[in-house]
Amino acid sequence: MPGPRLSRSRLVAASAVVAATAVVAVTTTAGAFGPNEQAQRAVKGGKAKNVILLIGDGMGDSEITLARDYTVGAAGRLNMDKFPLTGAYTTYAVHADGTPDYVTDSAASGTGWATGVKTVNGRISKTPGSNKAVPTILELAQKGGYATGSVTTAELTDATPAVLAAHAADRSCQGPADMAKCPTDTIAKGGPGSIAEQSVDHKVDVLLGGGKQRFDQKVTDGRYKGLTVTEQARKLGYQVVTDDRSLKAVKGDKPVLGLFAPGNVPTEWTGKAAAVGGTDPQRCVTSNPNRPAGTPNLADQTTKAIQLLEAKQKRKHSQKGFFLQVEGASIDKQDHAADPCGQIGETAAFDRAVKVARAYAAKHPDTLVVTTADHGHSSQIVPLEAQPPGLSSTLITDEGQQLKVNYSTNPPGQSQEHTGTQVRIAAQGPQAYRVLGVTDQTELFTTLREALRLR
């Protein structure tokens, strides 16, 4: 039976990669292929046993370039720069009538890749006009026998993790006490409940992130009425961990809920926020005094999540692998706050998680690894002599050079805004060729579904 047909643009792009990489294949270490052979293998397509999807929230090209310039130098390369196949995808949302909304939020963009359906800003895995739930890639993976996981530096009920394991009329409906904008989603009205309740009801095998305050809220109706969502999770068999030590010790015999902060996980780096007229040249502080000791970093959470998901499938003697989404959430949040050091530190932390995923795929080449962003953001690298009308900061990079970053999508004192630009998507492994060229976020859903052969 013939395989799926490629569009002319993708066929030309794929053929070009094959031609460019057919000359030589390099094996770097045992089981780890060089970029040329990675590209050749990726273009062939095939079925994936595992998928690791890494989302840098708000991580547009400017954010990547800023982190690269500061940490490894203008001529250096981050881990996320080393994928064999790279393209771009469009990020727009839609209005209720289906017409384009050119600047997306994280809920609509996440719904795009989680379900293959575009929706209105603020909505979680529901249709734009009729507000009907749409099956997500995580739900399909569960039905297909795959282990599933979600890791984030935001609250586990924030938009990007929520799109995988919840359906809500509005992203604000995170806990049982937060349901004002989702009246028909409440359990009392026959709905599925808050995002926190749905996430544990889905019995996702591994949930790691912040948001303890949402899970400490009490369920108001239904079977678990009067219990906190954390207590509901325990009733459903979850092991609950709250710090690095307990995360390292936990076994994979039951699902795991990791709650490492009341809200968002504190950033790794700190420094002076951008200011009107700029800041004096500064070096970032790479240890945040407001980050509690024992808070696991994103790379360690990713490593543990992979171990737990693998362990579950081995116990079941399953031939299926796992689906894991990993989010570096506070790239976006520090961009909103015009905090370049916080933003760079979170991008660097995300890049270390990318390294973990690529190292795993080097030993398990039947793993599709994709890294991308949900939308662009506001930071811009500008000339030192520029005089931005809004907020700016001058940094001294690891190369010893000065770099000026500007935030001017809103007046000083207001949160900086997303932008409607296309963003990078890069991949390796089975079906990775699908990221080539310019695609749309909804096509990532198809890539993931095809890679795992899900119906």
CATH topology: Alkaline Phosphatase, subunit A
Shape: globular
Query: Residue share in helices?
Result: 25-40%
Order of strands, widest sheet:
9-10-8-7-12-3-13-17-4-18
Instruction: Give the overall average pLDDT.
Output: 92
Total strands:
18
Strand content: 15-25%
Second CATH tier, the architecture: 3-Layer(aba) Sandwich
Number of domains: 1
Give an account of the 3D structure:
The chain is an alpha/beta fold. The protein has a single domain, classed as Alkaline Phosphatase, subunit A (3-Layer(aba) Sandwich). Helix content is 31%, strand content 18%. It contains 14 helices and 18 strands. The protein has a 10-stranded mixed sheet with strand order 9-10-8-7-12-3-13-17-4-18, with helices on both faces. A 4-stranded antiparallel sheet has the order 11-15-16-14, covered by helices on one side. Strands 1-2 form a two-stranded antiparallel sheet. The longest helix is centred in the last third of the chain and has 24 residues, at 340-363.
Per-chain topology:
Blueprint: H1 8-21, E1 27-29, E2 32-33, H2 35-43, E3 50-56, H3 61-71, E4 85-90, E5 93-94, E6 100-101, H4 106-115, H5 137-143, E7 147-155, H6 159-165, H7 195-201, E8 206-210, H8 212-215, H9 229-235, E9 239-241, H10 244-249, E10 256-259, E11 275-276, H11 298-315, E12 322-328, H12 330-336, H13 340-363, E13 367-373, E14 380-382, E15 391-396, E16 402-407, E17 423-428, E18 438-440, H14 441-452
Parallel strand pairs: 3-12, 3-13, 4-18, 7-8, 7-12, 8-10, 9-10
Antiparallel strand pairs: 1-2, 4-17, 5-6, 11-15, 13-17, 14-16, 15-16
